[in-house]
């Protein structure tokens, strides 16, 4: 079973990033076209799903089995996910940057999201799973935000300050230049976590024209 996946669609995902992912890992400039954003987001989710089973046992309860099934079916992130990419100098900087890998997956408070959805008369969540997962390889950082309410995910956006440090690649859009500003200027990787803990700009469906973003902490 593993061989069938590894040699077919998973291999295709790997091939889709071979031309530019090594440049990201080494901190080189890359133009992220929509195709590259989609490929990078899919590779990020695929890798994070795998890493959950190679790291601490406690992390293996963070990502639900349903997300594995959904990714297998779609071969891409789901509508319950947002994927960001960022830049930071790796610890212990050396010649073998690819060996610098950090991974962390954390549960988030889906109950709080459900209460907000109910308060705003939005549809009930699809499920009660919410988590964030962060992956760093060399200079390149990927962050997956997964929330069990597609309407909530559709409104997620890095706050005004964070947009200079984190680029949204799922859903894909535009042609941003990578790297953005270094996370080292704002407390490193923990700044990504704090951007959610403190609340991020969210524009609920239908509210963007009114210019009234809300603070939605996770």
Mean pLDDT: 83
The share of residues in extended strands comes to: 15-25%
Radius of gyration, taken over Cα atoms and rounded to an integer in Å: 17 Å
Strand runs, count: 9
Number of domains: 1
Note the quaternary state here: single chain
Global outline: globular
> What's the SSE pattern?
HHHEHHEEHEEHEEHEE
| Relative helix content | 25-40%
The N- to C-terminal Cα distance equals 37 Å
The helix-and-strand class reads alpha+beta
What characterizes the major β-sheet?
A: 5 strands, antiparallel
Low-confidence stretches: 198-218
Number of separate helices: 8
Strand order of the largest sheet: 3-4-5-2-6
Topology:
Elements: H1 2-6, H2 9-17, H3 21-25, E1 30-31, H4 34-51, H5 65-74, E2 81-87, E3 101-107, H6 110-119, E4 130-137, E5 140-147, H7 150-155, E6 166-170, E7 177-178, H8 190-197, E8 200-202, E9 214-216
Antiparallel strand pairs: 1-7, 2-5, 2-6, 3-4, 4-5, 8-9
Helix pairs in contact: 2-4
Written account of the structure:
The protein has 218 residues and is an alpha+beta fold. It has one domain (24-208). The protein is 33% helix and 21% strand. The chain contains eight helices and nine strands. The protein has helices at residues 2-6, 9-17, 21-25, 34-51, 65-74, 110-119, 150-155, 190-197, and strands at residues 30-31, 81-87, 101-107, 130-137, 140-147, 166-170, 177-178, 200-202, 214-216. The strands form three sheets. The protein has a five-stranded antiparallel beta sheet. Strands 1-7 form a two-stranded antiparallel sheet. Helix 2 (9-17) packs across helix 4 (34-51).
């Amino acid at each position: 079973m593993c061989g069938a996946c590894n040699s077919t669609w998973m291999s295709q995902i790997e091939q889709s990033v071979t031309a530019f992912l090594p440049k990201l890992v080494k901190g080189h400039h890359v133009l992220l076209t929509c195709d590259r954003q989609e490929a990078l987001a899919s590779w990020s989710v695929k890798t994070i799903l795998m890493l959950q089973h190679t790291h601490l046992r406690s992390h293996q309860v963070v990502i639900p089995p349903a997300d594995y099934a959904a990714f297998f079916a779609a071969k891409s992130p789901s509508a319950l996910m947002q994927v960001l990419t960022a830049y930071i100098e790796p610890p212990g900087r050396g010649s073998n940057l690819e060996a610098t890998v950090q991974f962390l997956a954390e549960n988030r408070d889906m109950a709080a999201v459900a209460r907000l959805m109910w308060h705003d008369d939005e549809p009930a969540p699809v499920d009660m799973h919410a988590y964030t997962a962060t992956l760093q390889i060399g200079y390149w950082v990927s962050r997956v935000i997964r929330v069990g309410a597609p309407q909530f995910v559709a409104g997620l956006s890095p706050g005004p300050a964070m947009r200079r440090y984190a680029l949204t690649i799922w859903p894909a859009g535009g042609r941003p230049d990578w790297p953005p500003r270094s996370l080292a200027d704002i407390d490193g990787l923990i700044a990504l976590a704090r951007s959610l803990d403190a609340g991020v700009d969210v524009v609920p469906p239908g509210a963007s024209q009114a210019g009234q973003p809300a603070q939605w902490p996770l």
